[in-house]
Design a protein that fits this description.
The chain is an alpha+beta fold and 453 residues long. 33% of the residues lie in helices and 27% in strands.
Length: 453
Amino acid sequence: MRLSRYFLPVLKEDPKEAQIVSHRLMLRAGMIKQQAAGIYSWLPLGFKVLRRIEQIVHDEQQRAGHIPMLMPTLQPADLWRESGRYDDYGEEMLRIRDRQKRDLLYGPTNEEMITDIFRSHVNSYKDLPLTLYHIQWKFRDEIRPRFGVMRGREFLMKDGYTFDLTKEDALHAYNRHLVSYLRSYERMGLQAIPMRADGGPIGGDYTHEFLVLAETGESEVFYDSHITDLTFGDRQIDYDSVEECQAVLDEFTSRYARTDETHDQAIFDQVPEERRRTARGIEVGQIFYFGTKYSEPMGATVVGPDGQRVPVHMGSHGIGVSRLLGAIIEANHDDRGIIWPEGVTPFHVGIVNLKQGDNSTDSACEAIYAELQARGLDPLYDDRDERAGAKFASMDLIGLPWRITVGPRGLASNKVELTNRRTGTSEELSPKDAIARLVQIYQPVLGLTVQDR
RNA sequence: CGGGGCGUAGCGCAGCCUGGUAGCGCGACGGUUUUGGGUACCGUAGGCCGGAGGUUCGAAUCCUCUCGCCCCGACCA
């Protein structure tokens, strides 16, 4: 993309309503625009990152064998009356009435609807196990929306639902989700720690939350520092293997890690003192096993091998997709702006032309731009007629992890500068070598697609 | 929902107490200048002072009501 043709309304000054860094930077970098309390438009740059995150979630869900679909944002109230949650959910649920005076609601989650779909079409244990998921906008009428997209009222969420014949099978589905979530977060450049959690209004007697450590997190967390040494890495897991999935869960939940909701000081005190940590965390996902909580009242049953009709064991699993942008920025920024991890960056590299209008720099930039695209990368070329300082400031703000700087001085000896946003270190390379380096850097990120399996 | 605060140009703000022709900085636009970290200068455009009612000769300013937004708290992916 050429910046002169893009829509990137960056702000030089801090909008006064933004108190935390991710909100401030998202507004300043022209990623979002607030339309009402907790409701945002996603401007092109923000939308691009949102789509990248969404794509990673899709990839990893499908890698785990989960099936994508899409349910509507508006739901009939009757389904929720059936489960009993129409009254239980409270003021957080946005209720709407249509012209025929039918009660509708803007879905805060989809257990009822998915259960309805399931019971309409699945009758036999032979159709199990089944995991369906979608990525759809949700609305929860928060008492106090704040922190930009981290606590919006309208938010994009991946929610998946598992159906199994037995509790044992359902817990394997649970473990499978834990594995796929660990992989997903790591691809986004995040460390998300699974922590034992409470059920909350979704319900469930077995549940973990995934927390990203950040000063601005809303939850207080307590953990054994050894937990942060664990990484999923590029290990290959057979998602059908009960043992392999269980082993990952065991490994990642072996150390003490809880939020204030479930914190137990007595157990925490058994962790060696030098390893005890108290911090704050942002919740970016949660997994639940809730048994027959919905299948029973809503009649989601299958005929088992013994000919008996039994309610299915269910679980639900969520990733806060739009919230993740905030969480990633909270965990990756400095005083000049955002620092995107390679896995989610809106553009892979920025090209800064130091002397726009100069024949040699212009053509060098054009050549680099074209070649990067030819090699499958997505560059942002700052071809505006601006001073170098303004271009650098914009690039730093929007946080592209790599920058190629092209100026007459370096070009005289066939050199451009390749700069890492995070470390600030630069290398002088020929344009050809700089491109080769970038291709190499992004090879693992671009290589990760489901089709490659 | 309780407590606190704010709505004046695209953004950040002053003016309000003590009523009398609506201002500053940044940004935008047109020039000149400059070209390796938000350059400098000249000029131009841009405002029903959130909305409604009231007081007054006269309201951004005083009074009443209302809408919106932010912050703290209880609640939450």
